[in-house]
Each structure stands twice: as C-alpha cells, then as structure tokens.
Amino acid sequence: MRTPIIAGNWKMNTTIVEAAELVKAMKEKLHQIAGVEKVLCPPFVSLTTVKELIKGTSIKLGAQNMYFERSGAYTGEVSSVMLTGLCEFVILGHSERRGYFAETDQIVNKKVKAALGAGLTPIICVGESLEQNNAGDTVGIITKQVKAAFEGIASPKGTVIAYEPIWAIGTGKSATGDQANTVIKLIRNIIAQIYGDKTAEAMRIQYGGSVNNANIAEFIKQPEIDGALVGGASLKAADFLGIVEQTAKLKKTG
Ligand code: PGA
To answer: Which of 250, 145, 165, 146 is nearest to 208 (CA)?
Structure first.
C-alpha cells in the first residue's frame, strides 16, 4: 500500500505574514488527519517561518525549486544543500519552470540528481501541453520526460512524480479521473522498465491540475493515483483541508 501524498504548491503567492496566517488556519486539523502525507510548499522566503509553525506536527515541508549546483556564483539561486535540514521535499520540473524559465529535461535531470544527492525527496512534474495532447503526443512526451528525469540515476529512492497536464493547470479544466489514471499507469510502466516492478509499485504518482475540494474524489478513487499536487486550492485553508480529508477517507475505505 502506498501512502497517499497531497502537496500544496503555493507558487509565487503569500508574503511571510500571509504564509504564517495560512498555516495557522489549518495546521491543527491538518496535523490530525492520518493516513495521508501532507506537504506544504511555500515560497523560499517563508520556509523558515512555516518550518517553525509546523514543528511537532505531522505536516511536512517542501520547496518549489532549486538549482543543481551546490554553491558558487549563481546570483539569486538556492541550492540543494541549502534546503537540506530546512525541508524534506522539493518540486522539480514544474511546467511553469519549464515554460517561463526554460528548464529543459536535461536541467531537470541535473536537479533530480542534486536533490537526491542532498537527501531531499523530489516531486518531479511531467505533463503535456494542449497542442501535444490534441496531436495525440501525450504518451511520447510523458515517456520522454520521465526517462530523461531519471537518466543516470541508480535509485529514485522516495521520489514522487506529479502528472500535471499543462492544459489543466490553473485553468479550472481538470483532466478526468480516467484520463489521469491512464497516464499515471503509463508512468508507472516506464518506472518499471527502468527500475523494476517493485520500485514502480512503491513509487507514489500524483495528479495535478485544477484539483479542488469538489473534484479530488474523482482522482483519489482511481487505483493508480496516489494523491495530488494542488496549486490554487492550496491557498485556501478550508479547501486544502477538505482535499486532504477526502483523500484520507477514500484511500482508507478503498
Ligand atoms: P492548480 O496548479 O491546482 O492551480 O491548477 C497545480 C500546479 O501547478 O501544481
């Protein structure tokens, strides 16, 4: 049995004060929900504040990005070793990073290597664009992204993958549960080809893209889907709590 994982990707939202307020509004209830791994991914500048606030709870912390070099003249960047001890997870290869900041599959691969080397757990995002989806290229794109992300990596350790079709992110137009389940099954098959069945069976693969309180059940009911990477709805305490609560309930009862 894979423990479901719900991660909140706050993106470039919340000041330090707002981040603290958001955590305070949900931390007691979130802490009490068992059977789901709960991860908050605030902006870099709020990591320390959030870390303090969730101390002693079952809530975990993640960063939204990092650079692959350990240190040096890379103005404005944050490295894996800086995150070690601060947070446990790091989102890598988000489509917004790939799209707005020109992150290639090769860069994502270097980041995954650096994160694993520093003891962080990557949440690797993959997903096709609307054009690629319309052209029937989803399988090819996802296969390429997944294979490239793990190139030269002997063991993925606890790596999490998030399947996030770009056309579903922040658009209010989510994939259907069936669509997401099919692609996630494909991802698991690719992992099995690279690392074997046991590793593939153990790997957690999330769906992401316009997940909210009203549609989470559709995804969580699917056998291959192990949770969600939540953007917009993770900025509202009640919505995020609702998503985690439903996940706990549905995965428990099957
Ligand atoms: P969304 O974002 O839930 O706002 O669509 C998801 C993501 O980008 O991780």
So the answer is: 165
